[in-house]
Amino acid sequence: MAQTRIIIADDHPLFRAALRQTIETHYGDALIEEAGDIEALTGLLEQNRECDLVLLDLAMPGVRGFSGLLLVRAQYPDIPVMIVSASDDQQTMSRSIDLGASGFLPKSTDADAIQSSMKTVLEGGIWVPDGFTFDDGQAEIAEYTKRLATLTPQQVRVLMMLSDGLMNKQIAYELSVSEATVKAHVSAILQKLNVDSRTQAVIVASKLEQGQIEAVAGA
After folding, report:
1. Angle at which helices 179-193 and 168-175 pack, to 10 degrees?
2. Residue 178 and residue 139: Cα distance in Å, rounded?
3. Pfam family example for this protein (predicted)?
4. What topology is assigned to 5-123 in CATH?
5. How far apart are CA 88 and CA 185, in angstroms?
């Protein structure tokens, strides 16, 4: 049987160490790797795409809101991702599951629940805390979330840069592509999100982070 490979992606070394210790208690034979930012995580996955589980913090250097989850799910769709976050409100959990996470683990979760959650996800299931409901009554947000989930990895990067206020020329330089390629990505993003301008696309991404969609079409 192949060795179980788990990657802990979190920018706090002490939390990574504590989580590693908890995992090793029940998965002593597992290969556990650590990443402190999104670039380190994607680097590990590029070196070896065989991975059984990524434990991903939503708030890490190089990501904002759900962009890290979007990027990993778009680039490595076959790898289960479980969110491990201090932001454990209903909306954040709902958005994470809608965007393809296989589970949501609040950082306050005890060791027994961590082991239970990992067992569920490693066996192909979805794990959420007790009391979580998949229907949060915000159909409009869920619809935009599903649209965001259709973006390719490069389109996610472009949207992140648009959110940072970069122009096409700057994005092209950062991604080492032509401006024409960036324009094509922007057009695809607008089409997938069903909005008319880059400003509206940025508003969609921003509102999803905040858990609300307000007057997107009128922006």
Report:
1. 110
2. 37
3. GerE
4. Rossmann fold (3.40.50)
5. 32
Q: Tokens 């192909």 correspond to what residue?
A: 124
Q: What is the pLDDT of residues 14-28, one digit of tens each?
A: 999 999 999 998 888
Helix axes of 153-163 and 198-210: crossing angle, nearest 10 degrees: 90
CATH of 139-210, picked from 1.10.10.10, 3.40.50.1780, 3.40.50.1240, 3.40.50.300, is 1.10.10.10
> Two tokens at 209?
């982070």
Task: Express each pLDDT in 158-185 by its tens digit.
Answer: 988 888 888 999 999 988 999 999 999 9
Q: Which of 151, 148, 153, 155 is nearest to 182 (CA)?
A: 155
The number of CA neighbours under 13 Å toward the Cβ of 153 is: 10
